[in-house]
UniProtKB/TrEMBL annotation:
Residues 143-208 form the WYL domain. This is Uncharacterized protein. InterPro entries: CBASS_pafABC_assoc_protein, PafC-like, WCX_dom, WYL_dom. Coiled coil: none annotated. It comes from Collinsella tanakaei YIT 12063. It holds the Pfam family WYL. It comes from the Bacteria.
Length: 314
C-alpha cells in the first residue's frame, strides 16, 4: 500500500484540531494511537507529524507550551493549555454576541464558525450593518487585525485620518493596547516617525497593513484616555444644560469645568477631542441642548458638517 503524503497547510491544521478535540473529549485526555489514526483517516506517520506540530505550539499570552506526547501506543495531552471546552450561551448572551459580530466586521469565515456554534438566532437581525454617517462602529473595521498585531508584536502601517487631516495618510505605528471609552475605542501606539506615543480612534482607521518588522521597546506612559486625549488634541469650550447632563455624558476628554452653573443653569467645560466629527455628532444629537461656545472656527465647521449631513439625507 502506498504511503500517504505528508500533511501540509490546512490539512495539517485540521488534523491537529481534530486530535485536540479527541483528547479533550477523553476523561483521561488520552487516546489509542492506532485507533485515533483510523478515526481521523490519517496514516500513523501523518498523525505523528500532527503531534510534533502541536508540541511546537505555545499559548500566545502566557507562553505555556502544548504538552502532547506518544508513549506505549497512546497519545496523551497534559494540562489544559490546548484543551477544548464547550461554552453554553444563554439566549441573551447569544444575542449580544451576534450583535458584536456585526459591529466588528470580522473575517466572514470566523463569523460563520462562531454563528454555527451558537444557538439559533432567528429572532436576531444577523445581517452585517454598513457604517452610516455619524454612526460608525465603535471598533472600526480592523479590530481583529490590530489585536493580532498587538499579541504578536508586529509593527503596523495605519492609514489614518485625524481631525487635522483632510485625507487619510499612512503612519508607521508600534501597537501597544486597545482601550475603550464609553462610546469610542482607541489604539495606544507609538508613532515611529514622530517617536512619540499617540492615541488612534479605531473607527478613524482607513486601512491596516502588517510590516516585516517587530515592535521596539518604547518608554510607554501609562496614561488614561483622558490624559492621552489632552496631549495634542483639539480643545473646545462646551456648555451643557445642567451639571447632571455633563456628568451623564461621561466623555473621556472632559478636563475641567467652570464649577457653578450660570443663571440659566448651564455648565461649561473644557473638552479635548481627537476627532471633531465625534463632537459634532453628539452636539447635533442633543437637539440643541449641548453647545460649542469656542473656538469660533470649530462652531463654523459644525455648521458646515450639519449642512453636509442634511444634503446627503435629502
Amino acid at each position: 500500500m502506498p504511503r500517504k503524503p505528508a500533511l501540509h497547510g490546512d490539512a495539517l491544521i485540521g488534523t491537529c484540531i481534530e486530535l485536540l478535540q479527541v483528547l479533550s473529549d477523553s476523561p483521561t485526555q488520552t487516546a489509542p494511537f492506532a485507533q485515533t489514526a483510523t478515526l481521523l483517516q490519517v496514516s500513523e506517520d501523518q498523525l505523528t507529524s500532527a503531534v510534533d506540530t502541536l508540541c511546537g505550539l505555545a499559548h500566545r499570552q502566557s507562553g505555556a507550551r502544548v504538552a502532547v506526547f506518544i508513549e506505549d501506543d497512546t497519545i496523551s495531552l497534559l494540562g489544559d493549555v490546548a484543551t477544548f471546552h464547550a461554552i453554553r450561551l444563554s439566549l441573551q448572551e447569544g444575542m449580544v454576541l451576534a450583535h458584536v459580530l456585526n459591529l466588528l466586521n470580522i473575517d466572514a469565515s470566523v463569523r460563520e464558525r462562531v454563528e454555527r456554534a451558537m444557538l439559533s438566532l432567528e429572532t436576531v437581525d444577523a445581517t452585517p450593518q454598513p457604517d452610516t454617517i455619524g454612526s460608525v462602529s465603535i471598533y472600526g473595521r480592523f479590530y481583529q487585525q490590530i489585536e493580532i498585531a498587538i499579541q504578536d508584536c508586529v509593527r503596523l502601517i495605519l492609514t489614518y485620518r485625524s481631525s487635522n487631516d483632510t485625507a487619510p495618510r499612512p503612519r508607521t505605528v508600534d501597537p501597544l493596547a486597545i482601550k475603550q471609552d464609553r462610546d469610542a475605542a482607541y489604539l495606544i501606539g507609538w508613532d515611529v516617525e514622530k517617536d512619540a506615543q499617540r492615541l488612534y480612534r479605531l473607527d478613524r482607521i482607513d486601512n491596516v497593513a502588517y510590516t516585516d518588522d517587530s515592535v521596539e521597546i518604547h518608554p510607554w506612559e501609562n496614561a488614561s484616555i483622558q490624559q492621552s486625549l489632552t496631549a495634542g488634541a483639539l480643545k473646545a469650550t462646551v456648555s451643557f444644560p445642567s451639571k447632571e447632563t455633563l456628568e451623564q455624558a461621561g466623555w473621556a476628554g472632559i478636563a475641567d469645568t467652570d464649577g457653578d452653573a450660570d443663571q440659566n443653569g448651564r455648565v461649561r467645560a473644557t473638552v479635548y477631542i481627537a476627532d471633531e466629527e465625534w463632537l459634532f455628532d453628539r452636539v447635533l444629537g442633543s437637539g440643541g441642548q449641548i453647545i460649542i461656545e469656542s473656538p469660533s472656527d470649530l462652531r463654523q465647521r459644525l455648521v458646515e458638517y450639519a449642512h453636509r449631513l442634511a444634503s446627503r439625507i435629502s
